[in-house]
């Protein structure tokens, strides 16, 4: 086999990882599309502490625009992870809270945050070493 060989050896569909070309979609792509973006994760983290109003969320999540927060909570609501409640007051009061399904993500998000915190230094050092060894390969 040559060093430039890029062929892939075929395996039975049952042995391919979920999401493989010949494997039935197991839903992981949809989940990663939603929770794989930083805004959704940050909204979930904020709502893990309990219900929040829109402006409370916006103030708590540094750098998120009103439009992006609106899109994010709508997507999370559509996916059944967030519940939007409108109270019949003048002006109307709206709050957001995690559903049972959304709350089930919080331990996973916390585990990821804990892992990130404990490996932050090692990752930063690896990036610096890579950048020194591969000048001009800006892949950020």
From TrEMBL:
**InterPro entries in alphabetical order:** HTH_HxlR, WH-like_DNA-bd_sf, WH_DNA-bd_sf
Entries under SUPFAM superfamilies matching the protein: Winged helix' DNA-binding domain
Q: Which keywords has UniProt assigned to this entry?
A: DNA-binding, Transcription, Transcription regulation
Disordered: annotated span: 1-21
Q: Give residue ranges for domain HTH hxlR-type.
A: 26-124
Gene3D superfamilies, alphabetically? Winged helix-like DNA-binding domain superfamily/Winged helix DNA-binding domain
Instruction: List the protein's name.
Output: Winged helix-turn-helix transcriptional regulator
Transcription as UniProt keyword: yes
Name the domain of life: Bacteria
Q: Which PANTHER family match?
A: TRANSCRIPTIONAL REGULATOR, MARR FAMILY, TRANSCRIPTIONAL REGULATORY PROTEIN
